[in-house]
Amino acid sequence: MKLSYDNGKFKAGIHNNYLGVDKEVASELGLHYGNEDVSPERIVSMLETIKYRVRQNKKNKGLPEAENGDEEKVSEKFVQSEVYKNGSYLDTEFAITLDDEPTIRIDLVRVDDCGKIQFVELKRIQDLRLVNEEILTQMRNYKSFLEKVDVKEFVDYYNKVLAIMRKIKILPDKVLCDKISDVNNYVELMMTNYKKKGKSHGRLDRLNNIRRSFEENEIHSNIDSVISDYKKW
């Protein structure tokens, strides 16, 4: 769903699948199937339908095997949706292009109790990119991006997002601030914990290697929490 503020008016956009339009029916009747601009009031009036459709969307839930504890089969989209539902988040799949540079995409936007924005990149702990150069390059690109942005523009934008979400009653309960005040100048790398029980030297060595790499490259992450959780088993 997209929320925006333009010329003194709130606007919303959403794929009409979440409004109850089925692709097959739309095709048979010659109706548009895709993103629609709608009023915030319509979003509010159809919240139950939207929530149901989100739950049914295969992109937003784990694969069947995950129900039996197979963490390797859990989709990253499912993990992202679970994190979003249980935190003080304002946005997902944040994307922006500065001048002629490649588009930057970040998984989540969180706000703390003091109104400070924190960009968050989410990775499953099994992700192979955590132990190679790819993750380091990704985090360097994020750092370079945040060094160039206009903080005031972000603060103004997310104050509007905050107002819109509050107006149409979709602001997460854990968002407690009255307004956005600042933006942290780094992206936090959040990793999931291992879920399958059973310690191994290989896993612990991998976690320690990740921590060492992140410390050397000054990457903000929750790796200490992940290691602590693993050692409790």
Task: Describe the secondary structure blueprint for this structure.
Layout lengths: L1 E5 L2 E7 L7 H7 L5 E4 L1 H6 L1 H10 L19 H10 L3 E8 L7 E8 L4 E8 L9 H16 L2 H17 L14 E10 L9 H16 L6 H9 L2
Parallel strand pairs: 6-7
Antiparallel strand pairs: 1-2, 2-3, 4-5, 5-6
Helix pairs in contact: 7-8
Structure description:
By secondary structure, the protein is of the alpha+beta class. It is built from 8 helices and 7 strands; from the N terminus they run ββαβαααβββααβαα. The chain has helices at residues 23-29, 40-45, 47-56, 76-85, 133-148, 151-167, 201-216, 223-231, and strands spanning 2-6, 9-15, 35-38, 89-96, 104-111, 116-123, 182-191. The strands form 2 sheets. The chain has a 4-stranded mixed sheet, sandwiched between helices. Strands 1-2-3 form a 3-stranded antiparallel sheet. Helix 7 (201-216) runs antiparallel to helix 8. The radius of gyration is 20 Å and the shape is globular. It starts with a strand and ends with a helix.
